[in-house]
Automatic annotation (TrEMBL), chains A, B:
Protein name from the UniProt record: Crp/Fnr family transcriptional regulator
Gene3D superfamilies reported in the protein's UniProt record: Jelly Rolls, Winged helix-like DNA-binding domain superfamily/Winged helix DNA-binding domain
Regions annotated as coiled coil: none
Listed GO MF terms: DNA binding; DNA-binding transcription factor activity
GO-annotated cellular components: cytosol
Highest rank taxon of the organism: Bacteria
The UniProt record lists the keyword DNA-binding: yes
InterPro entries in the cross-refs: cNMP-bd_dom, cNMP-bd_dom_sf, Env_Response_Regulators, HTH_CRP, RmlC-like_jellyroll, WH-like_DNA-bd_sf, WH_DNA-bd_sf
DNA sequence: CGGTGACTTGACTACTCTCAATTTCGGTGG
DNA sequence: CCACCGAAATTGAGAGTAGTCAAGTCACCG
């Protein structure tokens, strides 16, 4: 299926998205130039598989539009999401200096465009360009602390607490009330929080008493402070 | 309490331990030399706190002997282990290019000696020495895949499965039976697996039927293959 | 307006946590 | 060498949380 997607050099809109990602923004002009030179843009439809666990690791990715799921399969076919990557987020850094294979399945959660960088080329770039090496380090470090939070939250918090925590991180700071539009399907959010979709549903309804209203993807939060108490 | 522990330059035994860690072993002589020059050896007793979540991040660590716990506290005082670090393992890499504070509590699980590296000095070393930068990248990448496994396992596996998985990783490869000596207390293993001590106990007793015998810290595994089926 | 897929709700089950009571283990001192 | 102490580990009972399955409802899109 890979071959069926157009592979293109980046157009200017895509370059802008790439340059706008928080971590790449720290790159200087020349480093950014080098990165875009080895980038290829690829398009996928919902549910397309970008790679399987165990496949030889070829690419480092940056999501341009849409959301991508990294997940693991158990022997009995259940899925566990490890990370959900949105626009501007990268994954696959850890493969640069590590094992020869992907450690997880990669799937498009919806229509997505991604920028793709051959690991071998990127490895060479990182060796030559200190800025790029530093960029990779920073994004790995960021992923590391994120996923450490994830482990701690999984182990300490109940479903409503995890949801409340997610909603709070989506709120603008210092607001007493807020309205949020979920950027993806609820089933994807459920996976991100380590829950079955039904459990997410029940978590939402248990947050009603804390002044949280749900209408489709639109979430209304009356009292941000009350949410913090959960 | 920090000030009560002797701070010493490394002796040769400690240098050997440090040089023997899998990742540092990849360092060349000069790089290793630079690392030992900025290292300080510190000693802690069981339950000593090396740092608290939120403390300004000063050091990168390498455990020389004993085990160290990285954990998070919930508001109601429950603890969740994020990682258990044994001899030769490092932690704190992610703070090199990131936030100004520790993201977790650090505690000695028993009597430990650690080598400590000031982040600012190490940052400078990494900037100057490509080998050291690469060493840091590799260990971050290794931690990243480890903790991704941890998230997936937490979400996919039951307590007996997690325990079986741990025992299997402690077995020598390709053996049909094995005897393992746990390197630390069971309560620490419980935390590592994201379980309450009681749950670990029950997991052990549920593995009896798979031919696992427990005598103190000594674990006997009759049939490694049977354990894999769990 | 109809239909498909996403979401919600309910009933039930499985798993793990908590609390409390023993038992075992490991080390210390007599 | 043995007795004893305290910490660690085990076991039991009970409660809470989330997963599964099934049925029903809602939302979005043609």
């Amino acid at each position: 299926m890979d071959e069926m997607n157009k592979r293109l050099k980046m157009n200017s809109r895509e370059k802008n998205i790439l340059a706008g990602t928080p971590l790449m923004a720290a790159l200087g002009k020349p480093a950014l130039q080098h990165m875009t030179e080895i980038a290829t843009v690829v398009h996928f439809e919902a549910r397309d598989i970008l790679a399987r666990e165990g496949d030889p690791a070829e690419y480092f990715y940056c999501v341009l539009t849409g959301y991508v799921r990294l997940f693991r399969l158990s022997r009995d076919g259940r899925e566990a999401d490890i990370r959900i990557c949105g626009p501007g987020e990268t994954f696959g850094e850890c493969l640069l200096y590590l094992g020869p294979a992907y450690r997880y399945h990669i799937q498009a959660a919806e229509t997505v465009t991604v920028a793709r960088f051959e690991l071998s080329k990127l490895r060479k770039l990182a060796d030559e360009d200190r800025d790029i090496a530093r960029f990779i380090m920073q994004s790995m470090a960021a992923h590391l602390v994120n996923i450490m939070d994830c482990v701690a939250n999984d182990r300490l918090q109940t479903a409503p607490q995890r949801l409340a925590h997610y909603l709070l991180t989506s709120c603008p700071q210092n607001s007493t009330s807020a309205s949020i539009r979920l950027p993806f399907q609820k089933s994807l959010l459920a996976g991100k929080l380590g829950l079955a979709p039904e459990a997410l549903s029940r978590a939402f309804s248990s947050l009603k008493r804390a002044g949280v209203t749900v209408r489709g993807r639109l979430i209304l939060i009356n009292d941000v402070g009350a949410l913090r108490q959960i």
